[in-house]
Amino acid sequence: MATPAPPITEPDPSALTSSGDQVGPCTVCHRKTRRYGHGGCPLCSYCFADASAKWGRA
Ligand SMILES: [Zn+2]
Fold it and tell me: Ligand 1 centroid to 48 CA: how many Å?
């Protein structure tokens, strides 16, 4: 079962440790996440975990 994600008003934990110019909205849920720079991803960690679970079976 998927871990319940906090409300989208809560930034992804990765955003809290990123400088402001690396932070942007997740393409799926629009939560603030680290989108750019080292370790950046267009998905927040919650959506990424959900997507990778699906992709992992491809
Ligand atoms: Zn997301």
Answer: 7
Residues around ion ligand 1, judged by CB within 5 A, are 26, 28-29, 31, 44, 47
Question: Residues 7-55: pLDDT tens digits?
Answer: 999 999 999 999 999 999 999 999 999 999 988 999 999 999 999 999 8
Whole-number Å distance between alpha carbons of 17 and 55 = 27
**In whole angstroms, what is the distance from residue 10 CA to residue 27 CA?**
15
2 neighbors 50 (Cβ within 8 angstroms): yes
The domain ranges of the chain are 13-55
Rounded Cα–Cα distance for residues 10 and 32 (Å)? 8
